[in-house]
Each structure stands twice: as C-alpha cells, then as structure tokens.
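My hope is that you will study the protein record below before we discuss the fold together.
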Amino acid sequence: MSQDALITDNEHPDVLTGFAAIDAGNWSRAENLLGPQADGGDPAAMLGMGLISHQRSDTDVAIQWYVRAAELGVPEAANNLAAIFAASGDEKAATLWLQRAVTLGSADAAVNLGRLNHWSDAAEAEFWYRRGAESDLGPAMANIAVMCQRRGDTAGAERWYRQAIEAGEFRALVALGQILAQTDRADEAAHAYRQAIEAGDQRGHLGLAQLALMREDLASCEASAQVAAHAGLAAADVLLGQIFQLRGDRATALTHYAKAAESGEAAGSYGLGVVRAEMGDVAGAESAFLVAARAGHLPAMWGYVVVLHQAGRTAEAQQWLEVAARAGFPPAVAALDAQSGA
C-alpha cells in the first residue's frame, strides 16, 4: 500500500490530521496527534513519527519507528531506512532495506537500488531501473537512458529519454536536446531546450547558447548564456568565456573562465589555460591545465602535456599523455601510436 493510501484509508482522523500537520511543518502538533496512534500500533502513525524524528535529526529514534512500520509492511519506512543507512555509508544495510521496500511494492525503492549501483555495477543498476520503469517512473526511464549513453547506444538513450518525458520527467528534456544536437538535429534540439525552459529548467538556456555557438551566432549565444549565468549556472560562464575569446577580448574571457573555475567547472580551468597560453603566460597555463586535468578534462590533459613538453619536463608529460590516451583522447592516442611506430 502506498503512503497516500495508507494515510487516506486510515480509520482514525488523527492520522490524517497529523500528516497534514507534517505537510504544514507543524511538527509538534503532528507529534501530539500521531504519537498516541503510533504507540497503539498504527503503522501509518509509526511512519509519521519516523518522519518527525528524522526531520529533527534524531536518527536513532527515527530508525526505531521506521523499523516498526516496515515490519508492519510500510514500504516508505523501509525506503527511508535505506536512505539513513546510505547516508552513513552502510551500503549493505541500505541495500537490504531497499530490497525489502521493493518486496513491499515500492517502485521508488527499485530506482534507489539502481542509483546505489549506478557507478559500481551498471548491469545491476539497469536491472533495478527497469523495475522502476515498469511502474512508469520517469526518473527510472531517464537513468536507463544514461546507462544507454554510457555504452554508446545513442538511439536507445533517445528512446528512453522520450519515454521519461512522457512520464513527466521534464529534466530529461535537456539531455534529449543534447542528443538531438549531437546527431545534427538542431531544430529539434532547440525545441527540446525551449520546452525545458517552459518547464522551469534553466539549463535549456545553456542548450540554446551552445546551439547558437555552433552556428557562430555569437550575439544569440551571449544572450542565452547571460540568462543562464543570472540563473546561477556556472557552465554559462564557460560559454561567455568562449564568446569573448572568439571576439579577441582576452581580459573579459579570463574573467568569465575564472568565475567558472571558481565554481568547480573544469572547462573553466581549461579555458583559463588556453587563454593564458595564448598570452604567453606559460606558468599560468600550466597551473590551470593541471587543475582541469586532475578533474578528468581530456583536452586539458593534452594542453598540460604540451606545456610540460615545452618546459622540457618530458617524463611528466609522458605520464599525462598515457593517461589521456587510456581515456581515448584522439590526439593522445595518435601521439602514443606514433611513439610506438618510431
């Protein structure tokens, strides 16, 4: 039984009123209403007491209530237990409670099991995402699309993103737009980005800016990127840096790249490296490239290799060349192949 049904079908009016108090943030009133019912063995009230304790960061008490509710068949309680254990780093306990929640009928728990395995076991993650997709959960479908992209199945990713959007997962619109842009369907991509904006996802402005940059429409690119920047998206400053770099305004480009880099955008650090190298600031370029390279930015690794070679530090350069080549960066792969041929 879902949480909503568990509450609305409850025979005691204090349970429904207690959850209304939770929704309103009136925790003391909720506790006064739900506490006696929970003590009396009502599973919905036990869940509510778990939520109240959880909100108060009284984790031990929350666990006690959630366990009691889960043992009486409340899937949301098992799911919440898993969240607590996952947050504490106990993935084994989190997995066991999520599996229990799935057994009790929670499709959300299946998606959470997928997320728990997302980076460690792709096959296991996708298995659980598909369980969630069977219940028409948009996040599950969107994550299956991500798994498709990871294995190079662009057509499958597009199909699953579209299904996710149909299921109400509008955050998938930007990802769909990116696939459409990559497969030379710019008009369709723009439509997806505009739909994302209408749904409140400001990343759609970034997508429109990238499309404008591809067709060298710097004015439109800047306009969309500025909107994205005002929305707090650090990646917008990377685009603005590229625009001013193309215009030859290196000072302004550096300002935007630096702002992006300060927000943790590896592409911002890479942009700093490129512009500093153009200005003859080798030490500054080396420093910026290294920051981005350590974050896994492949072009930055290549840029770092170049400046290390120029500085005569060939052993370090070789190490980074091999890292970039193992990651599949074409210039690095070609350079290593040339070394082998020599």
